[in-house]
Amino acid sequence: MRTQVQVAAPRLRSTDVLVGLLLVVVAARFLAPGAFDAPAVQAWSTVFVAVCLQALPFLVLGVLLSAAISTLVPPSFFARALPRRPALAVPVAGAAGLVLPGCECASVPVAGSLVRRGVTPAAALAFLLSAPAINPVVLVATAVAFPDDPEMVVARFLASLAVALVMGWLWSAFGRGRWLQLPPRHEHPPGTGRAAAFLSVVQHDLVHAGGFLVVGGLTAATLNVVVPRSWLDGVAAEPVLAVLVLAALAVLLAICSEADAFVAAGLTSFSLTARLAFLVVGPAVDVKLVALQTGTFGRRFAVRFAPTTFVVAVAAAALVGWWLL
């Protein structure tokens, strides 16, 4: 009796997409060298490089923290540090974002490691959203960017923290474990030292997350060039439309949270509330962040979490802006 062995179909990874795109670019460089001198192509390449270089240091920081959590911190630490009840663990994890400077690229792999170490996903997601939005670096940058509007710092802090807490509590109430599909960790041979295990996890996670960062950067650069500035000026006079447009623009431009305040400060034709929406939505959901979340938690998670986060972020920014600004 013959035994039939089923071979799983090869899975397309972000690094495969990256290699394919690089091959296309190299081929196009030789086949059509003049095309790369066009102003639109140069603007696209500038934005793409800026997005990736801006996010890469924080991605590396997040990978290092993720590897440290995975290999150096005992699971019992999290059991002692966080309340057992998810409803109480969410605000504690959200407040932890105050003490960790970093952007959204750093928070995604850290949140993934927290889930692997037994932290309730609701708390890990609250940290994922709060860390890039309310840490001291971001708040100081916001104060510098808006020297004549100090209330923007308070408004950003309150609205961003509200998004983190609401999304954490929503996941605690309605989230399903089957929606989280964390990629398998590389298993280390018995007797592997902590230093070797740490370096192995760093290498694995950096390649994995870096590929999704590049894919997100490609998307952000393309949309950045396609969206005309004159169209933005035309909608600034409509209050509700201005909030929605800047919120959508934050998703498309994918600017790092340490730098987005200076971009928002330059959008002087828009109201403070609309610019607050830009600052609250960007660190919570943008194209590169969705790509990173897909690579870390799986597609079923991202298609549910990202749209819900967008709605909650817009609502929080509108309410806080109406109250404070």
- Number of helical segments with 4 or more residues: 15
SS-based class = mainly alpha
| Weakly predicted, low-confidence segments | 1-9
In terms of DSSP E residues, the strand content is under 5%
User: Average pLDDT value?
Assistant: 78
What's the domain count? 1
Output the radius of gyration: 21 Å
How many DSSP-defined strands? 0
Shape label: globular
Proportion of helical residues: over 70%
Order of helices and strands: HHHHHHHHHHHHHHH
How far from one another are the termini?
Answer: 76 Å
Biggest β-sheet description = none
Write the layout of secondary structure elements.
Elements lengths: L13 H18 L7 H33 L3 H7 L4 H11 L7 H13 L4 H14 L1 H10 L5 H24 L19 H33 L2 H7 L3 H15 L6 H7 L5 H10 L5 H11 L1 H26 L1
Describe this entry's structure for a reader.
It comes from Klenkia marina. The protein is 74% helix and 0% strand. By secondary structure, the chain is an all-alpha fold. The chain has one domain. α1 packs across α9, α4 runs antiparallel to α8 and α9 packs antiparallel against α14. The chain is globular. The termini are far apart. The N terminus is likely disordered.
